[in-house]
Amino acid sequence: MNYEILLGDNRDTLKTLEDNSVDAVVTDPPYGIDFLGKSWDANTGALETYTECLRVLKPGGYILAFSAARTYHHLAITLEQAGFEIRDQLMWLYASGFPKAQDIGKAIQRRQGVDEEYTIEEWEAKQGYSVNRPGETMGFGDPKNRDGHSDAGLSGKIAKCTSPQAQQWEGWKTALKPAHEPICMARKPFKGSTIDNVLTHGVGALNIDATRIDYNGPSDKPVPHGGKARMHKDNQNWYKNQTGFKPLDNPEINPQGRFPSNVLGEVEGYQKFFYCPKVSRKERHIGFEKPPEPYDRRTEGLDSAGIQGIQKLNGEKNTHGGNNHPTVKPVELMKYLIQLVTPPNSTVLDPFNGSGSTGMAAVELGHRYIGCELDPDYVEIAKQRIVAWNTEPKPENSFNEMFTKID
Question: Using CA atoms, how far apart are residues 389 and 384, in angstroms rounded to an integer?
Fold first, then answer.
């Protein structure tokens, strides 16, 4: 396996790489949303980091960088300031996001002094579903929480809105349910035409055929007809209704699959995009014989010193029972992105290595991988996951598995 992870500040470790030596940068940098109150998430990555990424990329090389909906503009501006040319915005959609929003009515009721509370059973009857459903605890300290722990600081009851002011604002909340993450696609500028650059440096174009979207079935797939790709008769009317033109009028019909779009995910009723759910528990902890059970949510997002502090309070040893990184990306998603922007036998860089999902994908695809990581614990976790992913049976990351365990 051809990979290395450089320990230290990426603004320093990237300086050890040669100019024009990397084919693509695929990365999941901080989102600049102060995730869990951590200082490392105070911005979307330093300008100096992206300036170094530009330097080490070959002319025409792409960078694909994840971001959050409300801070994407910071990332895009920083990449432009570093010298990149913004080419597109990809959108990763997922169905498993859950709302993290305060109910204003209940907050008003608590401030006024709670006169009455729902029990879990009463709330379930009111809502018509169980609070055990992932993402729908609604503020209860659920004794059957997904990781075996009650949510810290919650009472097991939730305030009824009984005062006029609270009732007026019941159901008003502070945020929407998250269901997408934008990915900035930018490219290192080059002189001359794309054709000349591809022939000289081997990068600068997108591998469309390698990332085409499979058809839904026989009735959805074009078939050869008179030397042209043509859809089955029973599906032509449907296709015209969906797209506004006849199948034979579409120059992009290809028996290999649909032309990939800048949406990665699932749109109900029209699932024509590459679909990838969030990471399953098995994929998160691959390479670890016995993941922590129950999973200690209090350690999520903490650096190694914070994790040691929690373990010390619990009288636990400072050992890794699994991957505690809070923002793990699916390997299949990273594979898709890498395939989109890199030719075979490339060098892929991730300046924000984390727990190594980009490395797992790059090595599986036969590329050389270079990661940069500040936390030595995550370096070890990433190495273990990269090796395990490429030597052990891979867990499935199916749609149904999204809902087995959220951690």
Answer: 9
Q: Quote the domain boundaries for residue 385.
A: 3-96+179-209+324-403
The tokens for 142 are: 């659920």
Q: Is residue 27 part of a domain?
A: yes
Radius of gyration of the chain (CA): 24
- Interacting residues of 283 by C-beta distance below 8 A, sequence separation 6+: 328, 330, 331, 394, 395, 397
**pLDDT (tens digit, 9 = 90+) per residue, 59-92?**
999 999 999 888 999 999 999 999 999 999 999 8
Q: Are residues 81 and 128 in the same domain?
A: no
Statement to judge: residues 112 and 149 lie in one domain: yes
Q: In terms of domains, do 48 and 187 share one?
A: yes
- Give the model's confidence band at 298: pLDDT under 50 very low, under 70 low, under 90 confident, else very high: very low
Asked if residue 303 belongs to a domain, the reply is no
Enclosing H/E stretch for 59: strand 57-66
Contact 254, 369 (CB under 8 A): no
pLDDT above 90: percentage of residues in the chain: 35
Q: Do residue 187 and residue 239 come from a single domain?
A: no
Whether the predicted model's global pTM rises above the 0.90 cut: no
In a shared domain, residues 48 and 82: yes
Q: Report the distance separating Cα 290 and Cα 279, nearest Å.
A: 18
Q: Which residues contact 297 (CB under 8 A, 6 or more apart)?
A: 147, 149, 407
pLDDT range class, residue 304, cuts 50, 70, 90: very low
Contact between 64 and 90 under an 8 Å Cβ cutoff? The reply is: yes
Express each pLDDT in 120-162 by its tens digit.
667 667 666 555 544 344 444 433 333 333 333 344 566 778 8
How is 235-252 classified by DSSP, letter by letter?
HHHHHHHHHSS-GGG-TT
Q: Count how many domains the chain has.
A: 3
Query: Region 164-169: what's the mean pLDDT?
Result: 90
